[in-house]
Amino acid sequence: MANRSLTTKDILQKEFKQSMRGYNPAEVDEYLDEVIRDYESYNKELTQLKAENDRLLSKIDELTKQASITKPSYSSQPNSTVTNFDILKRLSNLERHVFGSKLDETEDEL
Prior knowledge:
This protein is mainly alpha-helical. The protein contains 4 helices and no strands.
């Protein structure tokens, strides 16, 4: 960031030499007052933005630490290698186990 050589106090206390054909001192003072207000507003906003930036950077650091400590959770999606055929085969085996001979008898009747 560039160094600022002027402060609001410097602007306020600036004295201009007067000459016969110089600028109107009241007009110059009025303009410098406007510059001071603008400069103060700029400094206030800059201070707020720096504070917000520091807060956000610390939040990033905190979240990064939490992410490195937390173990990655495993996906809740089913294994993609299991096919519908495998599921049907397992279901059929479970039905045979639960219903036993009753299931075999109904198949013979059909």
